[in-house]
């Protein structure tokens, strides 16, 4: 329980995105120095809510447009949060974190934080904006205000995304609109019960902070996908590949060249995780012979994970040192609310 006689201690992380962009003449670009603007927003929030906030600003090495994010960007943000939370504010523990981020990869970074920081028992709230702050009709102030309220009002820990008047678990969020103010939705209802990460994995997640980001990525299935493209994706992402599959986890992967490529990945230790492109339902590899064949070649069923959560979960677990059976078992568990079921037996 927070001591309400003291000002709440809040860490504010500014990563870039439209929220703080300005027009360059060649299009919108992220502003590096937004300290005064953010300070004004916090002061306004404190005035409106009648109590000061003891806050500190943290900024990653580069303030970017989401398009500039690399496979390491989301973990860099998570590591920065972990480091600053450990340092505390004014000699006291940080009670909440608000992260201002570009919307295009907001769900990726938020999902990454949900797994990489699963051992931190504080609210961490990601937000951004569709229109830059200061532009008439901008949604930046409202989203900032809502994120602050979400971060400071409840004691519920966990990583959430607040945008366009809605709050949702980060491990379920996807960007659904490039224009609307309600730009994000939570795909599929939150899973219950959550298995949690457990003490051993929590320790491993904390211990691997600042380790290099594993090269994990995704390939989307389309009819006629050449085996060479699958091979190239496995070369590009040797520490883990998510396959965004059709329906229950199938794809154009059953030719001899594709299956051989998958078997080679399994034998060389590259985990391959199948998720579904469908908005509803889950992966069930054994349902069809073609799914059973790719499972036999080593592909792991990814339940009903969103693409963002699948990449983030695999990346966080790889960085925590998990491989082989331990990795499969952790992928099967509902660690932070990212999937509706645990265990490998799907409901039929
Ligand atoms: N391109 C911007 C980004 O950095 C879009 C946004 O923030 O809304 O994600």
TrEMBL record:
Residues 9-186 form the L-asparaginase N-terminal domain. This is Asparaginase. PANTHER family: 60 KDA LYSOPHOSPHOLIPASE, L-ASPARAGINASE. It comes from Leucobacter chromiiresistens. SMART domains: Asparaginase. Residues 215-328 form the Asparaginase/glutaminase C-terminal domain. Coiled coil: none annotated. InterPro entries: Asp/glu_Ase-like_sf, Asparaginase/glutaminase-like, Asparaginase/glutaminase_AS2, Asparaginase_C, L-asparaginase_C, L-asparaginase_N, L-asparaginase_N_sf. The active site is at 103. GO terms for molecular function: asparaginase activity.
């Amino acid at each position: 329980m927070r001591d309400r006689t003291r000002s709440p201690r809040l860490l504010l992380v500014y990563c870039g995105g439209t929220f703080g962009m300005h027009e360059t003449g060649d299009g919108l670009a992220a502003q590096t120095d937004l300290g005064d603007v953010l300070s004004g927003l916090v002061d306004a929030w404190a005035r409106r809510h009648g109590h000061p906030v003891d806050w500190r600003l943290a900024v990653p090495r580069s303030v970017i447009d989401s398009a500039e994010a690399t496979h390491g960007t989301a973990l860099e943000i998570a590591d920065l949060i972990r480091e600053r939370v450990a340092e505390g504010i004014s000699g006291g523990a940080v009670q909440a974190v608000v992260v201002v981020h570009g919307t295009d990869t907001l769900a990726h970074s938020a999902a990454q934080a949900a797994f990489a920081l699963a051992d931190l028992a504080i609210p961490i709230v990601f937000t951004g904006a569709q229109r830059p702050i200061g532009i008439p009709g901008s949604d930046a102030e409202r989203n900032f205000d809502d994120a602050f309220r979400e971060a400071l009002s409840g004691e519920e820990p966990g990583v959430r995304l607040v945008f366009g008047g809605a709050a949702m678990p980060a491990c379920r969020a996807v960007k659904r609109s490039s224009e609307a103010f309600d730009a994000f939705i939570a795909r599929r209802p939150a899973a219950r019960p959550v298995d949690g990460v457990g003490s051993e994995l929590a320790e491993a997640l904390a211990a691997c902070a600042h380790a290099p980001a594993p090269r994990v990525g995704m390939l989307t299935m389309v009819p006629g996908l050449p085996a060479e493209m699958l091979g190239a994706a496995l070369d590009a992402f040797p520490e883990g590949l998510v396959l965004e599959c059709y329906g229950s986890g199938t794809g154009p992967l059953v030719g001899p060249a594709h299956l051989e490529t998958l078997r080679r990945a399994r034998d060389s230790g590259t985990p391959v995780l199948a998720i579904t492109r469908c908005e509803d339902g889950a992966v069930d590899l054994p349902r069809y012979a073609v799914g059973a064949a790719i499972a036999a070649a080593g592909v792991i069923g990814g339940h009903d994970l969103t693409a963002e959560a699948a990449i983030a979960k695999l990346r966080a677990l790889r960085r925590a040192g998990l491989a082989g059976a331990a990795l499969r078992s952790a992928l099967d568990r509902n660690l932070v609310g990212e999937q509706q079921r645990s265990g490998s037996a799907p409901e039929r």
